[in-house]
């Protein structure tokens, strides 16, 4: 679980009920056991809620985050769109569409990204998701007009919390996701790739975390997620050197999972769909459950992850997909 989630767990865990002093003196072991039990239960419930409850944010007003105020500011910076197409096969295609600025994120696009994530949270037939950019380039980060217009430290922190909320919800979607990196993924665009489960790259594409050269650090959760993907030492090299990671280097250090054969926009999208299909064949409820338990195992402590596994299993065992598979297996064994 990330630092923000841990902090939230500590903030939201209820205080232990106060006990009279004579009770503690008479039976200290019982008092300690009760305290441990309450802390354990509250910690479990908060952490599991963070992961399992659809739309549960990392940040709220208790953290000084005021979402509606942020939205009003972001609406001022127009341009581009975030488009979502849902295929009958259960694959969604999420496209960053602002080609005149190399698909840089305007304020409106940041708002639309949240809207698309909410839409995907409610897409029960979905199994997989491809994230890409229009006109054969991925995303060049934030539109400089928005960056200049949100110039104070407070603005930066509010935007950080807004995008961390959005991308954490994205990461927890019960869909197996892959970033299709065509052209360049720069700055915030590079961070966006880390919110996906996988990354596939065209031969001529490039990932680069340029934040250091802009006098800042990754603030959309990219550093924390990159450490999970390639480890802390490699992350320091990538961020500290603002390294240009072509597809070969990215595959070697573990950021990329596959180098596609084509650099053509349409052909590479078809390749990415075929690549993703191998992981999402099967009933939607099973694929979505698999993603949920993997997310739990990544973010939660072992005991909590095991409890999530148990809870998710209860929705599948004896269900239609399970019974059909058993019947099919029995038929094959005759």
TrEMBL record:
PROSITE patterns: ENOYL_COA_HYDRATASE (PS00166)
Keyword Cytoplasm: yes
Main location: cytoplasm
Reactions listed under catalytic activity: (S)-methylmalonyl-CoA + H(+) = propanoyl-CoA + CO2; (2S)-ethylmalonyl-CoA + H(+) = butanoyl-CoA + CO2; (2R)-ethylmalonyl-CoA + H(+) = butanoyl-CoA + CO2
GO process annotations (BP): fatty acid beta-oxidation
Biased composition regions of type Polar residues, renumbered to the chain: 26-35
Gene Ontology cellular component annotations, sorted alphabetically: cytosol
Gene3D superfamilies: 2-enoyl-CoA Hydratase, Chain A, domain 1 (3.90.226.10)
Compartments reported by the entry: Cytoplasm, Cytosol
EC number of this enzyme: 4.1.1.94
Region: Disordered, residue numbers: 1-35
Pfam families named in the record: ECH_1
Domain of life: Eukaryota
Keywords: Cytoplasm, Lyase
GO molecular function, a single term: methyl/ethyl malonyl-CoA decarboxylase activity
Main function: Decarboxylates ethylmalonyl-CoA, a potentially toxic metabolite, to form butyryl-CoA, suggesting it might be involved in metabolite proofreading. Acts preferentially on (S)-ethylmalonyl-CoA but also has some activity on the (R)-isomer. Also has methylmalonyl-CoA decarboxylase activity at lower level.
Stored PANTHER family: ENOYL-COA HYDRATASE-RELATED, ETHYLMALONYL-COA DECARBOXYLASE
Family: Belongs to the enoyl-CoA hydratase/isomerase family.
Name the record gives this protein: Ethylmalonyl-CoA decarboxylase
Organism: Phascolarctos cinereus
